[in-house]
Fold this protein.
Amino acid sequence: MNQSTWLPASSTAMAMAMLLVGCESNPPKAIVEPSVATRVPDHGKPALTEAYGSYQAGDDARALALFLPHARSGVREAQVRVAHIYSRNKGVAPNPVEACSWWEAAAHQGDAVGANNVGRCYEIGSGRGKSDVSAALWYRRAADGGNAYGMYNMGLAYEYGSGVAQSFATAADWFRRALNAKLAPGDTADAERHLKRSMNHVNAANGDPQAQHDLAIDLFNGHKPEVKDERRAVAMMREAATRGSSPEVWYIYGSWIHGGVGGVKSDLPQAATWIKKASDAGHESARIRYANILLCGTGVKKDQAAAERLLRATIDSGSWLAMSEYSEWHNRGDCGFRKNAALGSQWRAKADAAQNDGAKRRTTK
């Protein structure tokens, strides 16, 4: 685990709008379109061959004229193509109302992709009046029809409580179904991220310290899909620190209350207690920070000798970070430590050499 993850990061604006997938402008790769050769025998209508040829060639004006009669007569595949033509802007002006109407017509004949796209129409309010409830109903219809993106969008609906009562457990179930139904590679990564987030909420609510840590970090930094909320992050990390046995969590929580982040009043003695706990467990950054706490008497009784012993012991364990800190002690002369620029330079050189040596070992493995 990266020990620097507790540090504040720049806030990332979260896109609260649901991910909208399955539309023709970004067709899902997992949905394979049947070839013309497999379609024509189904209907025995030669005109469809020409329509598909024009569609595939990007001549949507001609394709539309050829598809429309079949769409109006109830040929589902023609209805889907008409909807796509009205949405993809290749020679025919986009018409969201017509696109949504034809997707709905196809959906009423059992087309799950069409149902998913009708849900999209309602979700973003394009071609239909915006309605999260209606969007969720159509996504459910697509999901029940076996469409992976309908399942994915149902997961998002439950994750955010959009059109349905929020339920992270139900959201996680839908994300698992979507992943099992095979999303496109890029969307698979997003679904896995949302699944992890949902499960973090479920497990954190059940008192799992690791989930509480992960959720706290996401809340603190505003990692998508979480909205930055430092106060809630501190409360969540406190739960993780109290319940768990992770030196990393103890160190992060101690550092947060030391700095008084998230509107929480700084509590130096309590912070020192948590950081010492992590230090005693061998956490490198905690040992360095607790050495500084002892050096300056921050929340504890000042003890320069103990501070130097701890920092030197950390150096002896091979920590170039501790060497770098020792260099700074000599350069700054803080809190009564004897300033010595020459020793500061020597320890800086040792720290740089140890860091470079460590980097070389990692690259040659």
Notes: DSSP finds 18 helices and no strands in the chain. Residues 32 and 93 are 25 Å apart (CA to CA). Residues 36-197 form a domain with the Serine Threonine Protein Phosphatase 5, Tetratricopeptide repeat fold (CATH 1.25.40.10). Residues 1-44 have pLDDT under 50 and may be disordered.
